Amino acid sequence: MKKKDIEKLTDSIDNKYIEEAVNFNNPAERTKFRKPWIIAAACLLAAIITIPTALYAFAPNEPESFTEENHTEESDTGESHTEEKDNEEISYPDIITDDINHTNIKLYAERNNGSIFTNEEAYSYSWLEQTDSELYDKLIYNGKTYLSKTYYSWIEEADIGRSLGVHTLSGTDGIDDTVHYAEFEIFEINGVPSEYCVAAAMDDVYYPFHADVPKETLGEMVHALKMYQNMPLVRFGVNIKGNETTYSKINDEKRIWEILLQCTDAKYNKEMSEVMFWQSDHEYVSFSATSRKLGLNGNIRVTTDGYVWTTLFGYARVYDIGIEKANEIIDYALNNSVPTSRVCNQYWICGHIAEINDDYILIDDSDLCKNKEEGITYKLKANDKRIIRGIKYNNFKVGDLAVVVVNAYGYVDEYNGNTVYGIIDFERGHIQDDDIIVLE
């Protein structure tokens, strides 16, 4: 976001909400901090993120000219095939085909007049207030260190392979730096080499843990995690003068990986990685590169001057694939695609608290809907630690406006009183005009 956009947004927020946020007397203290991925994103985004049509994804690697949507799920892989090129037969491994995340959560902007404004600030809660997936992020397995990449999304059970036994995980208390240990069962992930990625059973689901992946060449990075089978490159946006688009989808779902697999010898360019991280004058096509199975979320950009650029592993890495191959990818994307919708990385459920009891909290959004008859009453489980601490720190009571943040794989169980699953956070909202402001 540009500075003038930030000033415009902050200037539009009623001073009484800012004063209320500054002077709000929490019943308990929680420590503010910047999460690692937020620190990286801060180089590209400002402290306040706007979601123009409300419940759209937060994409820390998005191009400035458009908001990169995030592909969220994978389907069955395609079949192997060969292709004749320059009299040389090239054999391709199975390449994943595309599927999108199908959530039944209604988008706020579709049912309301306004948008949601939130920020990047996070909090360090006490140890006992957090879930296991938030606490334990380090595994030593077969002499290698594996780190959790995200506690916002989990792996589908169908992708979980054989058990690798029970192992000890560790986590460090963000408040006093005490190291804690606990045992969890570890599993293989189907179609992913356990040498580089495994799953841990935590909080009744499975979370991915990564070992360090070799990345000196594009081929090493791609083959280590079998990205061509586990990460579709289908949806993209464009940052090329005269060709700016919103969101498009490749017609041939395998073609981009087929071209990239011809560039596996492309070497990591450290100098260009540093240059491109700070410069924004490169033109490129940016593919959504998100894999639920791998726990990776980001973009792979192909530039017109011959580079592949990605921050999938937390920092910029650039590979020199050459202008010819880069433009083959770009030309194919531009000439063989159709407009498509974006896929969210997070959703927001907003409404007034209708009831609080020992078993659940009810959130009613009728008053926020264009048509009140379309209102929905959502149920949040009261034993969810994210809900417990949200009530504690926001001092929630019946009638308050609440904002429930749900991950991309969350959903509403319509057969169980609209119970919400996949909750990330639970915060207080403020209405200003038709918008909802979350000030932390």
Structure overview:
The protein has a seven-stranded antiparallel β-sheet, sandwiched between helices. The two termini are 19 Å apart. The N terminus is likely disordered. Helices cover 19% and strands 38% of the residues. Strand 19 and strand 20 form a beta hairpin. It has three domains: 155 residues, no CATH class; 144 residues; 81 residues, no CATH class. The chain has eleven helices and 28 strands. The chain is an alpha+beta fold and 440 residues long.
Whole-number tally of structural domains: 3
- First-residue to last-residue Cα separation: 19 Å
Shape: globular
Strand content: 35-45%
Residue stretches low in confidence (pLDDT < 50, at least 5 long) are: 1-13, 15-29, 31-92, 97-102
Mean pLDDT: 77
| Number of DSSP E strands | 28
Helix content: 10-25%
Number of DSSP helical runs: 11
- Could you give the order of strands across the largest sheet? 20-19-18-17-15-16-21
Task: Provide keyphrases for this structure.
38% strand, disordered N terminus, alpha+beta, six-stranded antiparallel β-barrel, 11 helices, globular, 28 strands, 440 residues, seven-stranded antiparallel beta sheet, 3 domains
Q: Could you write a compact summary of the structure shown?
A:
The protein is an alpha+beta fold and 440 residues long. The chain is built from 11 helices and 28 strands. It has 3 domains: 3-52 and 113-123 and 344-437, no CATH class; 78-98 and 217-339; 130-210, no CATH class.
